Amino acid sequence: MTRAHFQQFYVEPDHVHGNYFVLSGGEFSHAVKVLRKNKGDAISAVDGCGHLFEGVIQSIESGLLKVEILSKKLNAGEPNLFLTLVQAVPKGAGFDYVIEKGTEIGLSAFQPVITERSIIEPGNRIDRWKKKALTAMKQCGRSRCPDVYAPIEFKEALSRYRQDLLMIAHESYTNDQADYTVKISQAKRIALLIGPEGGFTEQEFKLALNNGAKPMTLGPRRLRSDTAGLVGAIKILDAAGEL
């Protein structure tokens, strides 16, 4: 199977039973009705908790596809660095894009944050964001689905991620990547703060620095918030050797 034709399914953790797993619902329909999978065909699935299962189809009946597990890998496709994107939610569907592409490049968690300049739209979108992350995980060949947390206030985020290497992107700061590459290469957990379209206020920026955040630049051009989060994440993952 070439990588271009790579297909990975999602199996719910409680549908894995010893030496076999079962696909049902939408995953069953996609495998059987769209891809025309038959008994004896090879198939791969991930449980979103870090396990990749390779096996062959044993039976197809009553909306259930039973697969014999031939091999199991842990943390397949996963980076060693646990990178959390702590970002003010962009307006519209901007955060959907951030979650989809952020999952593809290797982000481990998404923490929406409310800042002074945030534009918060009504409605709970957590379930939609989690589905976006799950779909992207299957598509890109990862085995662990990134966490998507409920929005919190900026001050709470500073406290929650105090134990991580906390970094903040700010347009007024210019530095060389060498300034933070060494710290990134030694870190196991990093949290990256990204502001809203209007950026962090000066008070928020100073508060972050006072709480141990390390400033970083995203380059000489002004970026949209959804672009900034991905650019910052890529710079960090690259410095960590995880791209």
Verbal overview:
This protein has 243 residues and is α/β, with parallel strands linked by helices. It folds into two domains: 72 residues, Ribosomal Protein L25, Chain P; 158 residues, Alpha/beta knot (3-Layer(aba) Sandwich), CATH 3.40.1280.10. 32% of the residues lie in helices and 27% in strands. The protein contains seven helices and 13 strands. The strands form two sheets. Strands 7, 8, 9, 10, 11, 12 and 13 form a seven-stranded parallel beta sheet that branches. The chain has a six-stranded mixed beta sheet with strand order 1-4-5-6-3-2. A hairpin with a 2-residue loop joins strand 2 and strand 3. The radius of gyration is 20 Å and the shape is elongated. The two termini are 23 Å apart. The mean pLDDT is 90.
Q: Find the CATH superfamily of the largest domain.
A: SPOUT methyltransferase, trefoil knot domain
- Silhouette: elongated
Structural class: alpha/beta
Q: Radius of gyration, Cα only, in angstroms?
A: 20 Å
Report the sheet with the most strands, covering strand number, pairing sense and barrel closure: 7 strands, parallel
Task: Estimate what percentage of residues fall within beta strands.
Answer: 25-35%
Proper CATH architecture of the largest domain? 3-Layer(aba) Sandwich
CATH topology name of the largest domain: Alpha/beta knot
H/E series: EEEHEEEEHEHEEHEHEHEH
Oligomer category: single chain
CATH structural class of the largest domain? Alpha Beta
Uncertain segments are none
The tally of helices reads: 7
Head-to-tail CA distance between termini: 23 Å
Q: Helicity level, as a percent range?
A: 25-40%
**Rounded mean pLDDT score:** 90
Number of domains: 2
How many β-strands, per DSSP?
A: 13
